[in-house]
Amino acid sequence: MPEPETAPGTLRPGGRTARVRAAVLRAAEDALIECGFDGIDLAEVARRAEVGKTTVYRRWGSPRVLVADLLDDMAEQSVARAETGSLDGDLRANARLVVRTLTDERQGALFKAVIAAATGDERTAEALHRFYATRIAEWAPCVTEAVERGEVPEGTDAAEVVRAVSAPLYYRFLASGDPLDEAVADRAAHAACCAARAGAYVEPRSSLAE
Amino acid sequence: MPEPETAPGTLRPGGRTARVRAAVLRAAEDALIECGFDGIDLAEVARRAEVGKTTVYRRWGSPRVLVADLLDDMAEQSVARAETGSLDGDLRANARLVVRTLTDERQGALFKAVIAAATGDERTAEALHRFYATRIAEWAPCVTEAVERGEVPEGTDAAEVVRAVSAPLYYRFLASGDPLDEAVADRAAHAACCAARAGAYVEPRSSLAE
């Protein structure tokens, strides 16, 4: 499902630098999943990635830079949005994708590790925010097209509708610990759709707040 | 705003044991806010609380037990629900309270620290889930009373409506990093209210899913 990896502008696509980055990021991901952020050791990452220690220290320098680069890579590889033809269908596809990701053993552990790391480090937090901004921008057209189709009111804040789909899923995942399954995903999508139809996400709110 | 502290059944209310617990939990809270979970040292907590080290080691034994007890204490002190007479009003009061808590410098740092700690420790996660379960149960009557008043359909899942109010606020706080303010709180409450009125939180969903 992920789109083909796109190496950022500073790398030669498919070249040695890109291959090194891919191997190092994969090793960093493994370390995060197994040990969390505090378990990341650059020398160990280099060993696992079969890359010279000097390369890893010179290129990334610290675990937090490495994790920020991993988050940027995750954003680049984020799954393309759905185009089912209805807002309910698109949002449901989005919610189910989020649930599949968060309940996947590896991906779930990875998200917990990076979110925990972001609570204690500003640079990691910025990379995390960029990841979500990219994801929200990818899915926002589902809402703008629903506006064009007349499914939801003019002026609906597309990003906020996309956030509203993920929010109850992350709340369960990180805070309340309530179960996460397909039914929960569908309900999150349907609730966001209902609220959007009712104009709850129209900006400026003043005219529709009550 | 917090209700008066209620010592749990195993303590003599207001006695020395309760005073020791309060001092130790306050010191643990300070340590979490300043250094995060990994910065908690029982000897240092005892010193700050002006309590004997032996007492702290015997009673709590480890940082994770101490943090779990802090979360149980936070649940006991959780703010009483609003009774404004309308679902929109009650949910708005709830959302504004959550935003005030998460944007408060001390409380925000405390929540980030315990949520981060819960990602890596099952016992802390269970205490965190108890905290949210207590909070959700406290606010659920706002929804059941709205059902009785006919504001939202019979069979509305009250807990899920309460979760839906907090969810977009926590999503911004922990994941996307988008701003948290009173307008965001009001919109979260209003969206949950709209979705509830539309029947999005009625169980079983099958009859109202589409």
UniProtKB/TrEMBL annotation, chains A, B:
Domain of life per record: Bacteria
Residues within the DNA-binding region(s): 41-60
UniProt-listed Gene3D superfamilies: Homeodomain-like, Tetracycline Repressor, domain 2
HTH tetR-type domain segment(s): 18-78
Protein name as it appears in the record: TetR/AcrR family transcriptional regulator
PROSITE patterns per UniProt: HTH_TETR_2 (PS50977)
Species this chain originates from: Actinomadura logoneensis
UniProt keyword terms in alphabetical order: DNA-binding, Transcription, Transcription regulation
InterPro entries cross-referenced by the UniProt entry: Homeodomain-like_sf (IPR009057), HTH-type_TetR-like_transc_reg (IPR050109), HTH_TetR (IPR001647), Tet_transcr_reg_TetR-rel_C_sf (IPR036271), TetR_C (IPR011075)
Pfam families in the record: TetR_C_11 (PF16859), TetR_N (PF00440)
GO molecular function annotation: DNA-binding transcription factor activity; transcription cis-regulatory region binding
